[in-house]
Amino acid sequence: MRSRLGPVAVAAVALFLGTLVVSQFRSRDVYSRSLEQETPETLATLIADLNDRNRELRSEIFDLQLRVDRAQTEVAGGKGTLEESQRQLEQLEVFSGQSAVAGPGITIRIDGAFDEHALSDLVNELRNAGAEAIAVNGARVGPRTWFGRGPNGEVVVDGAVVPGPWTVRSIGAPDVLYVAMTRTGGIMGQFQLIYAHTRFTVTREDSLDLPALAGQ
Amino acid sequence: MGATKLQKGLALAVPALVFGFLVAAQWATVAASRAVSLRYIDPLSSTVTSLENEQTALKAQLADVRARLDRLQQTGAAENGSVQELTTRLEGLRDRAGLTAVSGEGVVVAFDMTRAAADLGQDRLPCFAPDLTDIVNAAWRGGARAVAIDDERIVASSSVYCVGGTIVVNGSIVSSPFTVTAVGPPSGILAVMNDPAELTDLKQRRDQQIVDLRIARVPDVTLHGYEGPVIVRSAVAR
Questions:
Q1: pLDDT tens sequence across A9-35
Q2: CB 3.0-4.6 Å disulfide test: which of A15, A19, B65, B225 passes with A64?
Q3: CB contact, 8 Å: A135 with chain B?
Q4: Which CATH code of 3.20.20.450, 3.30.70.1880, 1.10.10.10, 3.30.420.40 fits the domain covering A99-210?
Q5: Which residue of B has its CA nearest to A118?
Q6: d(CA A143, CA B23)
């Protein structure tokens, strides 16, 4: 008498494999979006944003081209590229948070309930508005800064507990930063709805002093 | 008896008819609104695409000018000892600022909305920008040396935001599926990513099969340097 276990085992394996293949196929069946699914209003905003960025890129290319010309003259004069190197060093020290900086900007004061996600979103929004340097409660925010929650629910920035109230100072064009933060439907409006008992104050500043990144 | 049968039939037929009518009406409304908006969508999306192409060309041009300036500095460094010292410091700063390529082991996170979730949501595209910033934040927390969203390197000026359902990083459109690559210690980065208290929104939607989320260790990966402008206009070094 032939064993009936063989076909049953084969069927079980086939069923298992079939389930695996289908589940794998289904899980990889992700949605591929395209611009055609956006509304005309959204596309118009994207066009404005891309135009802005391309303008910035053109301006940077123009500026660097001038610096290349100057550096060529310096090298031809046997001076090396001392001036250009010093200029670039200063620019990169500011950009990467390695030097203390001064300049106009805005101060945002947050008094009341707030959390690490909201603080991270606020920094993201400030960068989007063109902030060149940011500090939270006196500590500079750098390229690798992270936000977390401490064991007792405190806000943690780069591993250090940063208790409220929070003062977020950022250097950049004050009017641009101010409008970006306080516009109708903007991040401050959203915060005021979510954290109804928290007080948010945004102030334009003629001059701010921010420290370099800690531990540099 | 016959009257009861008729009543039962009507009890099923009437709601079915109403439901059918509602479905057809909804379909007709969506189709009509698409027909109107398509008139604008085609030329507008073509403009977006041509601006993206222009941006790619501008980035290549910028990289070329930067490389020329670097070469001049190398020449200047050979001629002048002070420039040599500055050039060495500049190389370190470029690395810290994210302007140079970085290679090494790390972690790749890829995610996108599932087809099933997209079908349920119909025309509305969700905004994944907060998820992307959460992943980047977790990577830094885990000790990453460098992070990129698709090809866009995350630097001090980087922002991630949505315009509709489209993600913009460093002023460039990033397409789905979204990929965040972190170069750094995989064990540290994975420990944070796998922490139940981290990426909670994204993991919850993965469990609900709304998004397809994959987190994997990679033995060797290279991230390009930041290709955008370094804008320092208002801030002055003290």
A1: 666 665 655 555 444 444 445 555 678
A2: B65
A3: no
A4: 3.30.70.1880
A5: B130
A6: 51
